[in-house]
Design brief:
Distance between the termini of chain B: 35 Å
Radius of gyration of chain A: 14 Å
Oligomer: heterodimer
Order of helices and strands of chain A: EEEEEEEEEEEE
Largest interface: A-B, 24 and 29 residues
Largest sheet of chain B: 7 strands, mixed
Number of strands of chain A: 12
Distance between the termini of chain A: 41 Å
């Protein structure tokens, strides 16, 4: 079965520091997708990125970057020059193709607190 | 605006009472999902539906029921059999195949009186 581990329960940083959120996954599928979602205090999960297992190229979007390493089954997320608005819970997720359709398996989440 | 609407935002349940959480989407998505979120446990799948009039149990379906009579709607009933219903409930939808991305509503927080 699929499994996603986010070992960091909570991280606190001071504004403008860089921070990396770790995600390690387990799967027997050869083709799969990895995701990151952000959950601000309002509660709604916001989609950030989807990565195909065949595409190991790192991606950068503004202050956000993602490092996908198939060899270590990791998909880490880095925020550069963090801001208070980055404070949220961040979830890593892995695709699971079940008998009855597509599902996502979520990690436990990492609480990020950015202090001014 | 296209999106997913969950209501109510807050809900209180009395002992022995069934309560229904609403989830409506206007994204024309085929698949819909219900998750339960408890502190420190991430999201756990309760039920999901890929097409109208069909749905499947997720990992923690006991004490819950759903229906999918319309493409746009996927209500969740928390029955009296669910002994620990206090949690944050999130509804999501996605296209049935392809990009796998799920889009979420703002959630309903359920508490027991």
């Amino acid at each position: 079965a699929q499994k996603v581990t986010q070992a960091q329960t909570e991280i606190s940083v001071v504004e403008k520091e860089d921070v990396t959120l770790d995600c390690v996954y387990e799967t027997r599928d050869t083709t799969y997708y990895l995701f990151w979602y952000k959950q601000p205090p309002s509660g709604e999960l916001v989609f950030l990125i989807r990565r195909n297992s065949f595409d190991e190229q790192n991606e950068i979007s503004g202050r956000y970057s993602w490092n996908f390493q198939k060899s270590t089954s990791s998909f880490n997320f880095t925020i550069t020059a963090s801001q208070v608005v980055d404070s949220a819970v961040y979830f890593c997720a892995l695709s699971e193709l079940g008998e009855y359709g597509n599902k996502l398996v979520f990690g436990a989440g990492t609480i990020l607190r950015v202090k001014s | 605006d296209g999106g997913i609407t969950q209501s109510p935002k807050y809900l209180f349940r009395k002992e022995g009472q069934n309560v229904t959480l609403s989830c409506e989407q206007n994204l024309n998505h085929d698949a819909m999902y219900w998750y339960r979120q408890d502190p420190g446990q991430g999201l756990r799948l309760i039920y999901y539906s890929q097409i109208v009039n069909d749905f499947q149990k997720g990992d923690i379906a006991e004490g819950y029921s759903v229906s999918r009579e319309k493409k746009e709607s996927f209500p969740l009933t928390v029955t009296s059999a669910q002994k620990n219903p206090t949690a944050f409930y999130l509804c999501a939808s996605s296209i049935r195949s392809g990009n796998w991305i799920q889009y979420f509503g703002a959630g309903t927080r359920l508490s027991v009186l």
